[in-house]
Design brief:
Elements (H helix, E strand, L loop, with lengths): L1 E6 L3 E3 L4 E9 L4 E9 L6 E7 L5 E3 L7 E6 L4 E6 L8 E9 L7 E2 L3 E6 L1
Parallel strand pairs: 2-11
Antiparallel strand pairs: 1-3, 3-8, 4-5, 4-9, 5-6, 7-8, 9-10, 9-11
């Protein structure tokens, strides 16, 4: 199993920046990819960004392309989501997730961290 702990959520003004961190622990050798998702009340959880654990290829939702950057540090077992030019619609609880090898979906989730963007 893989345990995930997010941090870095905060209240920030429109146009500001924030960096979220995710610390995977446990069987990290089983990780295939790490993802960031977000959810607002009454809406389904949506994909934000992902990074291959080895190799570093990335993917982004159209809504965050050019503003968010996902990165990883395998040596430190950390994944980051750098968020720039934040908008009010970015307000959500952000979750870190891990997709393990031989699994087709993200099956390990963190507890979430709140990001609030105010104008």
């Amino acid at each position: 199993q893989v345990q995930l702990v997010e941090s870095g959520g905060a209240l920030v003004q429109t146009g500001g920046s924030l960096r979220l961190s995710c610390a995977p622990s446990g069987r990290t050798s089983s990780i295939y990819a790490m993802g960031w998702f977000r959810q607002t009340p009454g809406k389904e959880r949506e994909f934000v960004a992902a990074i291959r654990w080895s190799g570093g290829s990335t993917a982004y939702a159209d809504s965050v392309k050019g503003r968010f950057t996902v990165s990883g540090d395998n040596a430190k077992n950390m994944v980051y989501l750098q968020m720039n030019n934040l908008k009010s619609e970015d307000t959500a609880v952000y979750y870190c997730a891990a997709q393990r090898k031989d699994y087709r979906a993200y099956d390990c989730w963190g507890q979430g961290t709140q990001v609030t963007v105010s104008s």
